[in-house]
Specification:
alpha/beta
Length: 308
């Protein structure tokens, strides 16, 4: 595992962060703990709770209780409910404070290194809530504050300077708006976490081959004009088909390796349904991408921008 600077905190964070959610509890608490133990063995020192579910917090706390707390980073998502049926988005000062206190009490973690808000809309986050978060940081129940999401409202939150961390999607075909947001976050000295590095639009060979293909309309708008690729060596040039045709490199691993080439990225959020997949993803930071892959990604990205 490789480690990267964690913004202004002066700490180091593993290049990948294990994101834990309800799916990880589907097969029981013990299975979830085994996943976390495997992540620790792989050198992952960064974990994110996707909601304030007390059961999830307890499982993580139990798995980390024999580890020096100062050596691991734990983030808690706020506003996404607490995992219970019927729980709603809640960015109120009282709701977020209660979620943090409950999760800390049951997990025994002592503090959260990062409290991250789940893309609140501009009307969902009153000043009283920001004041409550600052109070939690002052008492060191929370060390850093972050904002997570992909919508345009994220640009407003980045510009406020009120947050230490930005979490946003980033992948091989991200639009310029995302890249502009990342640049603004860097200029604001924010740490950057990324997710969504392997979007659904690229998760199969067929989707990757047709990611940029536009059907040309014939006379009166019916039918397609022009010959179709015949499967020759350049049949899929300018598409992301190569992601599924690179020896010894799963497509997801390539996409993860690509986002990690950005030196401003502190860590990429991964989800692992089993230990085998976890280990595959955990090995990516230590691997060098095959020669030419970065150029292929750039050509496909440019081709997609032209087709848009």
């Amino acid at each position: 595992m490789r480690y990267r600077p964690y913004g202004r905190s002066g700490q180091a964070v593993s290049a990948v962060t294990l994101s834990l959610g309800p799916r990880d509890l589907a097969h029981g608490a013990e299975t979830a703990r085994e996943l976390i133990y495997s992540a620790l063995e792989a050198g992952i020192n960064s974990y994110r709770l996707e909601n304030a579910d007390p059961v999830l917090a307890e499982v993580l706390g139990q798995a980390l209780k024999h580890v020096d707390r100062k050596l691991v980073q734990v983030a808690l998502m706020l506003g996404a409910g607490d995992g219970r049926s019927g729980s709603d988005r809640d960015f109120s000062a009282e709701g977020m404070t209660a979620s943090i206190d409950r999760a800390l009490n049951i997990s025994g973690l002592g503090w959260f290194d990062l409290a991250m808000l789940d893309e609140p809309q501009d009307h969902e986050l009153p000043q009283s809530s920001l004041n409550a978060l600052k109070a939690l940081r002052a008492t060191e129940r929370v060390r850093l504050l972050g904002i997570s999401g992909d919508g345009e409202v994220m640009d407003i939150y980045v510009s406020t300077g009120a947050f230490d961390v930005l979490a946003t999607s980033l992948h091989v075909n991200s639009p310029w708006q995302i890249r502009s947001r990342l640049r603004a976050a860097r200029e604001g000295d924010m740490a950057i976490f990324v997710h969504g590095y392997f979007p659904d639009s690229l998760d199969t060979a067929k989707k990757a081959e047709n990611a940029h293909v536009e059907k040309k309309k014939g006379l009166f708008g019916f039918g397609g004009g022009g010959p179709k690729p015949n499967g020759g060596p350049l049949a899929h040039a300018g598409t992301f088909a190569f992601l599924h045709r690179t020896a010894n490199w799963p497509a997801e691993a390539i996409c993860l390796a690509h986002v990690l080439t950005d030196p401003s990225v502190s860590s990429a959020l991964i989800q692992a349904s089993d230990i085998e997949r976890l280990n595959m993803l955990a090995q990516v930071p230590d691997r060098d991408m095959p020669p030419g892959l970065s150029a292929q990604i750039e050509m496909a990205r440019v081709a997609g921008a032209k087709a848009a």
